[in-house]
Design goal:
There is one protein chain. The chain is of the alpha/beta class. It is built from ten helices and twelve strands. Strand 7, helix 3 and strand 8 form a beta-alpha-beta unit. The protein is globular.
Length: 344
């Protein structure tokens, strides 16, 4: 794995390039790690992955715990590793073992791109890059102490955990800055728990490069489609579309009866597969008859939309106007959510 920073803002936000041995093209950061279930994004088959922006969608987050049931580690190893088993030769896998409390079972199977895990008391990785974990809860001192300790270790990057567990957004910048200020600039930083667009912007402003997020998955499961504007931050939904089972100016709930006869695309101007080929009425029908194709179409749209959001962030950093982009986006979101509350 190779990483380099290519652009900085006046603050801590930065744009970089991540090169993985399994990916033909470098992945620009800040970037989203696609949430997966046993190696693939939920509801998306391998042939549909090509409809997502490339190479932005080529970084997949996996958990070894997802493979406890099914093929044995030895069988996966005989096949040739996860890349060959899943047929995703041009994709990068980021393994996130959630083992701060529970021990991982022995799993010594890997190909040249992957890693093998033991328990936390004797864990080793073979052939992969190791990210050191930084925690500390809501204590600035503990996070700083942990970051200083991990920064001295021979690791390829840093995984920052423990966010999104109840801390308020106002206290988060101090916690983030306490960590990123002491980490080496030449290594990537990955974070878990920052999922909403405002939270992502907050993380990027602190110097985070990679986001381990399940935001898109949870939206899809609930029947929501992302609709917040990317090209201009202004109101474009009518008041009649608000407050239908949780709809607002950032997302719409396609389970609502309002959309049962709506023959327009999910989002006007969106170039994703779903918006180019299907309508709100069709997805509303699929949701109401419990057809899994509804989740597939929503997952494609929501992932495409969120990846475009990250691309705009990278462009704003390179252009030197990230802070203006962030302030305008957050103010627009506040105005829209405030208006939605008034209409309730």
């Amino acid at each position: 794995m190779k990483f380099r920073v290519e652009a900085w803002t006046n603050g801590r936000a930065r744009a970089g390039v991540l090169q993985l041995g399994s990916c033909l093209n470098p992945i620009e950061t800040p970037s989203l790690l696609l949430c997966t279930r046993k190696g693939l994004p939920p509801f998306v088959s391998p042939d549909l992955l090509s409809y997502l922006p490339s190479p932005d969608s080529h970084l997949l987050q996996i958990s070894p715990l997802h493979f406890l049931e099914g093929l044995s580690p030895k069988t996966i190893s005989k096949i040739g590793g996860l890349h060959k088993m899943l047929g995703l030769h041009d994709y990068g896998f980021v393994a996130v073992p959630r083992d701060s409390i529970l021990c991982l079972p022995e799993c010594d199977s890997s190909n040249k791109f992957g890693a093998s895990f033991e328990t936390p008391f004797g864990r080793h990785l073979a052939g992969g890059s190791v990210f050191g974990a930084i925690v500390g809860g809501c204590s600035v001192e503990e996070r700083q102490r942990c970051a200083n300790e991990v920064a001295r270790r021979n690791v390829s990057g840093y995984w920052i955990g423990g966010f999104g567990l109840g801390e308020c957004m106002d206290e988060r910048p101090a916690l983030l800055n306490a960590v990123t200020d002491v980490l080496p600039e030449e290594r990537p930083r990955q974070i878990c728990g920052l999922e909403l667009p405002e939270e992502v912007l907050q993380g990027i402003a602190a110097g985070i490069d990679l986001f381990d997020s399940t935001y898109v998955y949870h939206l899809t499961i609930a029947g929501f489609a992302l609709t917040f504007p990317l090209d201009r931050f202004e109101k474009y939904l009518s008041d009649s579309q608000l407050n239908h089972m949780g709809s607002d100016y950032t997302k719409i709930n396609l389970r609502a009866t309002l959309y049962s006869k709506d023959t327009s695309a999910v989002l006007e101007g969106c170039t994703c597969y779903t918006c180019k080929n299907h309508t709100k009425a069709y997805i509303n029908h699929l949701l109401n008859v419990h057809e899994m194709l509804a989740q597939t179409l929503l997952e494609l749209h929501n992932t495409h939309h969120y990846l475009r959001f990250f691309r705009l962030i990278r462009e704003s950093i390179k252009a030197g106007n990230f802070e203006q982009f962030r302030e305008k986006f957050i103010q627009s979101r506040r105005d829209h959510l405030g208006l939605a509350a008034v209409c309730a």
